[in-house]
């Protein structure tokens, strides 16, 4: 993950972008991957670890109605988390992650399901990945890697969509 984190930071610096993160199931792992790189403060503005629904609502302005209607692990909540992180920071691009790291889950929302959001001032992209029952650490690692990949793609495409 170190190389993609370096690539993200360089790409963001080249485009004069600041990054914010909004993390639930990864608990700060995306922020840690980025801030492990020296000089990351040039492009990493802040990260929100919003594990509880209350934190998502209080810190990121996720609507209680959205949480009630779709559940915390949903693309709707991922979108509101990413948009909330953008609004509560000085960033121009944000990434969010909310999922079921396990153990457990349900037939409707199985272990390993993770929803992602990428927000800019003008766009918000969401998607869901089902990593399967990789174990808690495996799901969190896979979610972190995917979030970094999505962030890299979004920064690369930023001039066209941002």
TrEMBL record:
InterPro entries: CinA-like_C (IPR036653), CinA_C (IPR008136). Residues 2-154 form the CinA C-terminal domain. SUPFAM superfamilies: CinA-like. It comes from the Bacteria. This is CinA family protein. It comes from Yoonia phaeophyticola.
